[in-house]
Amino acid sequence: MSVRTPGAPAPGAARARATRTKGPESRRPGTAAAFATLTPARREALRADCARLAELDDTDFGIRLLGNTPTHETRDEALLHHWATKATEFGRELAAGAPPAAAGHGTRVVETAGGLDRFLLARYTSRPVPTVELFTDTIALGEHLVDVLGWRDLYPTGALRSAALAHEHAHCLLHRDPRTRRALRDRLGHTALRLGRLRVPGHVAGADELAAHAYAGALCGLGRSPLLLTAALVSAVQALGED
Ligand SMILES: [Zn+2]
User: Fold this and answer.
1) Are 223 and 2 in contact (CB under 8 A)?
2) Where is there biased composition of kind Low complexity (predicted)?
3) What is the domain range of residue 174?
4) CA-CA distance, 101 to 203, in Å (whole number)?
5) Distance 194 CA to ligand 1 centre (A)
6) Predicted TM-score of the model (pTM)
7) Given its phi and psi angles, is residue 189 left (phi above 0), alpha (psi -120 to 50 degrees) or beta?
8) 3 C-alpha vs ligand 1 centroid, how far in Å?
9) Centroid of ligand 1 to alpha carbon of 213 (angstroms)
């Protein structure tokens, strides 16, 4: 589960890294303690940025995610809207059919730091054994940000960890189960090639990512898509790197 949408720049990343080499521990951008060091003006600007993000609806975030994914840069927005809607529906339905303990799902879970440097909340790897890595530094920053923004009604305490786990579980389902993968592809209805009456279904890059976000949001009962919080995290890392 990336904080950044695929292909989108990470505006604060370069500056955050530059500051990190200079400042003492408490000033490290990206750590929860660093929020206390934000100037009131910077904190207000961050709140205003995030309030603007919150005004976008969840479908807008889906369209942005697809639009920033390589191969979709020149696609018509109506088509991106269609795919975003279908992938989100699919993810929600997958969550509705998931067993109650799906967020735990028995996959090995490893907690580690170093997620902020790579703009990662969590990552699923299938080899050598299916494993979900949870990046505790990014999760801690996200939890703190929810408090700073007053978004607790949207993202209850601990929701970010649960959502990250659920998101990676969705990737795991799509990776392991060809029927689920085919069902998503059929739902999107993209045709890569047509030869007479023969239709070759195409892969829609980024659709699995959107489905995973929708799955996590639905399974964890979040008030808004996790995509809103990940976009806010990008703004926060930028603000912390600049101050
Ligand atoms: Zn993902």
Assistant:
1) no
2) 1-16
3) 13-242
4) 30
5) 30
6) 0.83
7) left
8) 9
9) 7
* Residue environment code for 123-152, b if the CB has 16+ CB neighbours within 10 A, otherwise e: bbbeeeebbbbbbebbbbbbbbbbebbebe
Q: Separation of 178 CA from ligand 1 center, angstroms?
A: 18
- Asked if the structure places residue 149 within a domain, the reply is yes
149 alpha carbon – ligand 1 mean position (Å):
24
The tens digit of pLDDT for each residue in 96-152 reads 987 765 555 567 899 999 988 888 899 988 888 888 999 999 999 999 999 999 999
From ligand 1's centre to the CA of 23, what distance in Å?
32
Torsion from C-alpha of 22, 24, 28, 31, nearest 10 degrees: 170
Is 115 inside any structural domain?
Answer: yes
CA–CA distance, 206 with 68 (Å, rounded to integer): 9
Torsion sign over Cα 136, 142, 145, 146:
negative
Reading the block at residue 210, the tokens are: 């959107």
Residue 163 forms part of a structural domain = yes
Distance 196 CA to ligand 1 centre (A): 36
3-state secondary structure 166-199: HHHHHHHHHHHCHHHHHHHHHHHCCEEEEECCEE
- Residue 187 inside a domain? The answer is yes
Number of domains, the chain: 1
pLDDT digits 0-9 by tens, 68-103: 888 888 888 999 999 999 999 999 999 998 776 555
**CA 155 distance to own-chain centroid:** 14
**DSSP characters over 65-80:** HHHTSTT-TTS-HHHH
